[in-house]
Design brief:
The complex is a heterodimer of chains A (509) and B (433). By secondary structure, chain A is α+β, with helices and mostly antiparallel strands. Chain A is 18% helix and 39% strand. A two-stranded antiparallel sheet of chain B has the order 1-2. Chain B has a two-stranded antiparallel ribbon with strand order 3-4. Chain B starts with a helix and ends in a 5-residue tail after the last helix. Classes of the chains: A alpha+beta (509), B mainly alpha (433).
């Protein structure tokens, strides 16, 4: 049954109405329609009755309108509910804002009470346990000159070392489980001999002090508990020792067009990315990459870092330092310099607006070779780095290529006067924040290097490591990390046991 | 992408397959091969320049002559109550080989200071052990003074600081006290060596080349006396050839007796053939490459000359020596030992590698005897030799070793494991008959 009101509505619009007009059709006049009741004036002439075709069309149209109506009703109901929810949310936000404003006022009062800033003491404790396969060392001698016969008659077979002395690092400091037969990397603070062990990696102290509005002093110190036979006065082990990692002045130049920091002292290097996250709480993994020995050292000198553009996305950092960015434990490192030609380094990077940031950088450095008195013996390196943080994914990658020229006196065995080093190394570290407190990661790193010092030693290193691990964060102050490093030699170097399992518990204060 | 995944998988898989089969849980297969080249100790090398080397009659005579003192000339330095001197100045017949080579290891147990040895006078060398001395070939003495053991045994007789004697004195004593043994081994002696013989004047009591008495002798008589002198050396060589000590804990360990060496000694052995690279020079079963090296030793100590230049100083002496391997007294002049031996400046400051068997029993050490203990020796090499105060250019193989205290102790422990069984007592004492 179709009501006359609906028929009238249908007739006044759409093709049915046009058609009715064209054919002079009229609606039946049996009952007054609702339309009539709503209009002040009645129709001057009753409409002719619609045909069956028109009625069918009208019925279809009315069905569609009824469906639209129902949908609109549902939308309306949803909007009403959303409105209520948003109103409640708004009330909560208002309350939160009010609370934060209250806290901010309280903090500001406390800060105002503390200013001028006089200092801050922070730091962390890093403890763990580890096990390294074999004798704990990452190198083995080429006994009998079997693998590298070209050194037969040049230097003893036991001084031809295959592998990487730092491939069995067990902590964020980069300490190897054991140096074994190593001849250049000889500082053996752990000396595990391939045995599993608990270890207190470092008690770190971070001191920051402001001097006025633009000058800051920062010091970073590790207190490191290690073994020593105290009954042996001639022992070479340091025992417990202190490592002053950073000690510098930072002057924030008051300029508005760009940001400029000037540093002087024992400073962070400017090379690559990994040095910025090398402290245990900052490092996703337990151990450094194979590249870190070249980029994570903290030299003495001066540095400038400037950030340009409105977004401060373009960063240029340069430094002039006593020595390179090689780490102290690697055998190339100056604090007090031995030559006049300082190491000049620079890095240019740009941060793209991708997620929390996609940073691409290029670095380079050149200077007189570390530990050499001759200004004419050069050491240089360059590299590229990437860091991406987006949607819980943290990806870092670096490539570093470099060389220490070394020196050979006439008639002397090659590199006899100063050691030579050629290296290429790269790594990629991918972490995924699966949960707020859980971040599995995997690192793949690779190093190809030849390090030689006359008849004293030669290291032939070509290896790849795969390090899967997981990082748990218990609140904002404690992290637990565990990883297993699969160490594989490449090229003609035979495999030997040097995989590493390492764990770390880091608590910040 | 699939290749990378395959590579990663391969790496992980290979990790599970990594193996390192160690001998006794310590040594790699290659290291063990190297170690097996150090043991067992074979027979001493045959020296064709002495055809009497394995002659038992010559050895028996040499044994007696080792303890013979009658031919020694006058002492220049006597016993002052502290120096271990053998008598009063001017005394004769007081010095035997055994005077400076005594005890189970035939070393100088008498002289004070012990870095030198006191014969007729002070010899600026600590007398070396005579046990296993026959393994040195061909260079004898730290500076390679001579190229055969028999000729070296002769050299001290007419050396002023040694026996301060002469070949005529020796010939007369052999005639008088060892005639039977000598003639059994080497043939008849001229009866005119008997002082009561009618022609005794042909052989003066005391004469050596350069003296008027020697020059007055006929060439034939000179040759006869010199032949006695040479046979004296060859007889001593035959005796020394028997003074072999074997079966050290190290030898037993290499032979399969795994508990023959302590864990520390085994670690020391690993260092010896590994990180410390001692085996580069202390090779072969008697632990010497019989070659000359400049270890960068700044010689110091009482009576030690700082002017000595080792091998370099001895080349002229060796090439001109009356009894070298190319001389007419050599039983084989075709050995070619002296071929290519020239006074090369590269030899300045070089000294022959010492054999290390029973080294723990033969302090003091180095040609100057300036290190009283093996710990000092190991420390010296750990430092990469001295920085200055030595002649010539230090061998490039002498590098700082960066050994830990424990590693140095392990090396010393290993060196102690090279002490073999002591010689039979009858070889160490004067024959009773």
């Amino acid at each position: 049954m179709i009501s006359p009101w609906l028929v009238a509505v249908a007739a006044s619009c759409g093709p049915a109405a046009d058609e009715a007009e064209a054919h002079g059709d009229q609606a039946p006049e049996s009952e007054p329609s609702q339309t009539e009741g709503q209009h002040a004036e009645p129709d001057p002439a009753p409409s002719p009755a619609p045909s069956q075709v028109q009625l069918d069309r009208i019925e279809v149209r009315l069905g569609a309108l009824a469906a639209d109506n129902e949908r609109l009703r549902q939308d309306n109901e949803r909007l009403r509910q959303d409105n209520e929810r948003l109103r409640a949310e708004g009330e909560r936000i208002d309350q939160r804002v009010e609370s934060l404003e209250h806290q901010q006022r309280a903090s500001q009062q406390r800060l105002d009470g503390m200013l001028p800033l006089t200092g801050r003491l922070g730091g962390y404790l890093d403890v763990g346990a580890f096990w390294a396969a074999g004798n704990g060392s990452g190198v083995r001698p080429d006994t009998g000159h079997v693998v590298f016969p070209q050194y037969d008659g040049v230097l003893p077979d036991s001084w031809v070392l295959m592998g990487d002395p730092l491939s069995t690092q067990v902590n964020a400091r980069g300490d190897p489980a054991d140096t074994g037969d190593s001849l250049a990397v000889v500082f053996d603070p752990i000396d595990s001999g391939g045995k599993s062990s608990f270890i207190a990696n470092a008690l770190n102290l971070d001191v920051t002090t402001g001097v006025g509005d633009h000058l800051f002093i920062e010091g970073l110190v590790d207190l490191i508990p290690r073994s020593r036979d105290v009954s042996n006065q001639d022992g070479v082990f340091l025992g417990d020792y202190v490592d002053v990692k950073l000690a510098y002045l930072d002057y924030l130049v008051p300029t508005k067009r760009f940001e400029l920091d000037l540093y002087a002292g024992k400073i962070d290097p400017v090379f690559g990315y990994e040095y910025r996250v090398q402290e245990s709480p900052d490092r996703i993994s337990v151990t450094p990459s194979l590249a870190c020995r070249y980029t994570c050292g903290r030299p003495l000198g001066v540095k400038a870092r400037a950030k340009f553009l409105a977004s401060r996305a373009l960063v240029l950092a340069t430094s002039v330092t006593n020595g390179s960015s090689f780490r102290e434990g690697f055998g190339f490192s100056n604090e007090t310099d031995t030559n006049h030609f300082k190491t000049v380094a620079g890095r240019l990077s740009y941060r793209f607006d991708v997620g929390a940031g996609l940073e691409l950088g290029a670095s380079g450095q050149i200077g007189a070779q570390d530990l050499q008195p001759d200004d004419g013996v050069y050491q240089w390196q360059y590299g590229f780095d990437l860091h991406l943080d987006v949607r819980g994914v943290d990806l870092a990658a670096e490539l570093v290529i470099g060389r220490a020229d070394g020196a050979t006196a006439p008639g002397e065995v090659e590199c006899g006067s100063a050691p030579c080093l050629d290296f290429k190394t790269a790594y990629g570290l991918l972490g995924y924040r699966a949960l707020n407190w859980l971040m599995p990661y995997v690192r793949v790193d690779w190093r190809d290097a030849l390090h030689r010092h006359g008849a004293g030693f030669v290291y032939v290193s070509e290896l790849v490591r795969v390090t899967p691990g997981v990082r748990f964060e218990l609140g904002t102050h404690v992290a637990i990390k565990a990883e297993y490093t699969v160490n594989r030699e490449l090229g003609p170097i035979p495999q030997f046991d040097n995989d590493v399992l390492s764990t770390s518990v880091v608590a910040q204060f | 992408m699939s290749k990378r995944v395959a590579l990663l998988g391969g790496v992980v898989l290979a990790a599970a397959c990594s193996d390192e089969e160690l001998v006794d849980g310590i040594f790699t297969q290659q290291q063990w091969v190297q170690i097996q080249e150090l043991s067992p100790l074979p027979e001493p090398p045959l020296d064709p320049t002495n055809r009497y080397q394995r002659d038992p009659l010559a050895a028996a005579l040499g044994h007696r002559l080792f303890f013979e003192a009658a031919y020694a000339g006058p002492l220049q330095v006597g016993d002052d109550g502290r120096n271990g001197g053998l008598g009063m100045p001017g005394d004769t017949g007081k010095i035997a080989c055994a005077s400076c080579h005594e005890g189970p290891w035939l070393i100088d147990l008498r002289t004070n200071p012990n870095n030198v040895s006191l014969g007729a006078n002070i010899i600026p060398r600590n007398a070396a052990s005579m046990v296993n001395v026959a393994y040195y070939s061909p260079w004898i003495e730290n500076d390679g003074l001579l190229d055969s053991l028999w000729s070296e045994a002769m050299v001290d007789v007419e050396f002023d600081l040694g026996f301060n004697s002469s070949r005529l004195r020796l010939a007369h004593v052999i005639y008088e006290r060892h005639r039977e043994g000598y003639e059994a081994a080497f043939g008849s002696l001229d009866p005119a060596l008997d002082p009561t013989h009618a022609e005794a004047a042909r052989f003066p009591a005391d004469a050596r080349p350069g003296s008027p008495e020697w020059d007055a002798m006929t060439p034939e008589d000179q040759d006869h006396v010199t032949e006695i002198f040479v046979n004296f050396g060859k007889a001593l060589h035959a005796y020394l050839d028997r003074l072999v000590s074997r079966d050290a804990p190290f030898d037993r360990y290499v032979a399969g007796e795994t508990d023959a060496m302590s864990p520390a000694a085994k670690r020391g052995l690993q260092l010896f053939v590994g990180k410390a690279a001692c085996v580069e020079c202390h090779a072969t079963p008697h632990f010497s490459d019989d070659d000359f090296h400049n270890t960068g030793l700044a010689a110091t100590g009482p009576f030690i000359s700082t002017e000595e230049q080792g091998r370099y100083d001895r080349i002229d002496f060796l090439l001109a020596h009356e009894f070298n391997s190319s001389s007419r007294w050599s039983d084989d002049r075709s050995t070619g030992r002296l071929d290519g031996v020239v006074k090369d400046e590269a030899l300045i400051g070089t000294w022959r590698t010492k054999g290390l068997r029973h080294v723990a029993e033969t302090a003091p050490y180095m040609h100057s005897g300036q290190f009283a203990t093996l710990e000092e020796v190991v420390e010296f090499y750990d430092q990469g030799g001295h920085d200055e105060g030595f002649h010539g250019t230090k061998d490039e193989i002498i590098q700082p070793l960066n050994l830990t205290t424990d590693e140095k102790a392990d090396l010393v422990e290993f060196l102690a494991s090279l002490t073999g069984r002591e010689l039979p007592p009858e070889l160490l004492r004067e024959p009773s008959d």
